[in-house]
Amino acid sequence: MPEVRFLPVIRAALVAVVALWAMLAGHGAWALDAVVVRQNVPAIDLLPAVERHTVEGDRIQVSTAPGPDGIVRRIEVRAREPGAESHWLVFALANNTDEQLDRLIVAPHFRMVDSGLIWPDLGSVRIVSMTPSQGFRPEQQSDPGSDTFLVTLDPGATVTLVAELKTPRIPQLYLWEPEAYKTKVNSFTLYYGIVIGIAGLLALFLTILFVVKGSAMFPAAALLGWAVLAQIGTTFGFWARVFDLSTEVQQVWRACGEAILASTLVVFLFAYLNLSRWHVRYGHIVLGWLITLGGLVTLALFDPPMGAGVARMSMLGVAVIGFFLVVYLSTHGYDRAVLLIPTWTLFLVWVFAAGFTITGIFTNELVAPALLGGLVLIVMLIGFTVMQHAFSGGGLAGPVGDIERRALALAGAGDMVWDWDVGRDAIYTSPEAEQLLGLKRGSLETDAAGWLETLHPADRDRFRTALDSLVEHRRGRIHQQLRMRSQDGHYLWFSLRARPVIGSDGEVVRCIGTMVDITENKTAEERLLHDAVHDNLTGLPNRALFLDRLEAALGFARLDETMRPAIILLDIDRFKQINLSAGVSIGDSILLTIARRLSRLLKPQDTLARLSGDQYGIILLSEREPERITAFADTIRRTLRTPITFANREIFLTASIGLALIDADHGRREEALKDAELAMQVAKRTGGDRIEVFRPALRTQKTDRLGLESDLRRALERDEIAILYQPIVRLEDRTVAGFEALARWNHPKLGKLAPSEFIPIAEETGLIIDLGLFVMDRAARQLGSWQRVLRLDPPVFVSVNVSSRQLLRHDLIQDIKGVLARNVVIPDTLKLELTESLVMENPEYAAQMLLRIRELGAGLSLDDFGTGHSSLAYLQRFPFDTVKIDQQFVRASERGTRPVLLRSIVAMAHDLGMEVVAEGAETESDAVELAQLGCEFAQGFAFGEPLSAEEARRLISPIPAESQRAAAGR
């Protein structure tokens, strides 16, 4: 048995000896560092981790990467292609997962990136074979554009791979997840197809233009388009797939394509700028350049890298020299050169970007496809530039006489001819006018009297007078807008311009001119005039027209003492809730129904207008006695109370009505309207569904409150409501556990207003619903931001108060669902606070609503616990998770003792499974005693006043900015 104990020692010594031998032997003296392959990584760049070897002969010996057992082995690989020298890549892959991994090793044949400016790499087969240190040999995949091998890595295995290279240069070597590589290839294939399609259509279009328009610049542009198409197809590997080209043949195509592209650029620049026009030497230079480029194409057939390198240098020269040439000719007033400046500037930028790419300054694999797409865009701009010049100002061949020019201008304008032969009293009108009016051919070819019969009766005398004046004075012009009757009886508007033609005897022999159909313009003009003073929904007069008619009514009142016009303003009560619950479309239908009901009550001399959303105004002139006016207002109130039925649903409406009588003492219309508005506001504030008659005493009654109501309606739109956060502290360790969100109004004139100054107004006016939703949404957004950045355990929470109006609305569930959908927060950390008295107003309804709120993921807190008269049976049914004890049970008496009920309330809350928050903790002794009583949390001035969002964040966790960014990145 003693030798058994020494077996582990012997085994470890052998492993150490083998490892030392592997490190000291031959090539690859040190073991490889394996590339760890992970499941969730789509691609890994292998070039930084490979070892390159160039050896004499066709064999190589390498050391493998250590496996899980730590042993470094030695393998020998023989080249498939014998030769005096061989090139190799050695790298290792490690699978540390528990699953078998399939990966693709990809080495592209050609990459524009870092291909080189002189003697560039035009692509070739990169990897001949690949040998693993263990397992199955990687299977080579069918991929015409790259050398692709499928390698399978067993769980926990480390495989060393030896790749035999065709050439010592390999531009890229990546390890791809198969699906990710397939997705990448498919996405690039779609892009390649789009670019090739656009390039092909562009080349075909320029060729067609060359056939249609025989200008020299068009064949040059078409040739450039075909050259770009050939270059793009070669670079994208399209022609290789179509014609099954080998890698060596692709090198020739690629070099020839670059040489042809450089040649066509010279041809286009020469043809477009018409350089032979400026100096004969330009033609000689271009001819010599083209001969050189032609020889370059021949050179590319025998030595593709040299041909491509010279072509790239030539393209750079064309771009730079062409730019200076275009600028020079532009300064000498050559229009063609001016048009080419933007396009050639873009081409110059493209050339430099391509230079940075092929020299390796830009290395992103998206650069090459983007450059070729940009080349298509440049050719497209060249095509537009050519067409702009070739077709600008063209259209007529040969000289044109004055009469023909006038006829062509008339036809181009689309005007109709109107001609009156005065001697024969015959009027001719173009057939287009008869077609527009639906008349028979020749209906408007009649005498002047018959032609006047087709006009609107209101236009006949005016037009007859114009004709008589023209004939009598033998000078002047006619420019009138006329209405002509169509076959179906309606009228179309025409603008007629005419002038007399004087004969040899000095008399008017003809009156000739043009007619234009202006019906659409007139209709639009009338519509604009109507819309300017009428409401778009109901068609009633708007506020502007109402004030205009009110001004007229004031004028009547000053002239006739017996006339007592009255202003009646009515505002629909709780109409916003109808819009929220039933929908805006039903709300609009209700407004239309109200307008129709009110219209039926009025007489022709009265005015009904829609002044704002749910506010209507009436100027009553048909009644003069105050009693009858008041009775009419009551009729309006009772009419509006009749239910409106929509989709088997009855909607009951009430209105707050303000009434003001106008007399001679009212100086301005705005003052009279303001009196009625003041009365209406009083009616709404006192409960709605009532009529309030204006009295002078109302002007001094609660004007400040009215102003606050008006300002509060716009406070949310103006972002005047600020949210502050009062800390809620965990008594166990005195850390901040959460906050209560409190609204403060930053009034532009009155400064900061406490909730007690504007919350009651919001409750009365119904604005508390919008205000509560605003506070809830802002608090949830801030809470989500804190939780994403800070990641505290337990997470921070925020409490938001819910009013009675919010709880009684059926839409509260939808509001909470929308807030939680827009703002992602941890469940139960957005707590809604409801007072005990509020939930006990309707316990059955409240229990159902609270259960649905809990299902949405919001927390529930029972506020002011102990101040109401709750039944413990009901409290057990409510799904509250937190109880807030009112401060009157927390604060000590003058003798320093706490209320006796405090301990009982805490115990009862714990028995119900709720946490306890004590309000009104103002001193350290309060906090100590509350913790001893079992309160989990406390809130009060002892732990801080309400803070801004940024101050609250610093109070939660004052971590440095670097940590915040790191947390956000995770």
Shape: flat
Query: What is the radius of gyration?
Result: 45 Å
Count of runs of 4 or more consecutive helical residues: 32
Largest sheet: 8 strands, mixed, barrel
Q: What structural class do you assign from the helix and strand content?
A: alpha+beta
Q: Kindly report how far apart the N and C termini lie.
A: 56 Å
CATH topology of the largest domain: TIM Barrel
| Strands ordered across the widest β-sheet | 25-26-28-29-30-31-32-33
Domain PAC: 478-530
Keywords: Membrane, Transmembrane, Transmembrane helix
Domain GGDEF: 563-696
Domain EAL: 705-960
How does this structure look, described?
The chain is α+β, with helices and mostly antiparallel strands. The chain has five domains: 7-176, no CATH class; 186-391; 418-524, PAS domain (Beta-Lactamase); 534-701, 2-Layer Sandwich (Alpha-Beta Plaits), CATH 3.30.70.270; 721-966, TIM Barrel. Helices cover 48% and strands 21% of the residues. It contains 32 helices and 33 strands. The strands form seven sheets. The protein has an eight-stranded mixed barrel, surrounded by five helices. Strands 1, 3, 6, 8 and 11 form a five-stranded mixed sheet that branches. Helix 25 (812-822) runs parallel beside helix 27 (843-856). The chain is flat and about 125 Å long. The two termini are 56 Å apart.
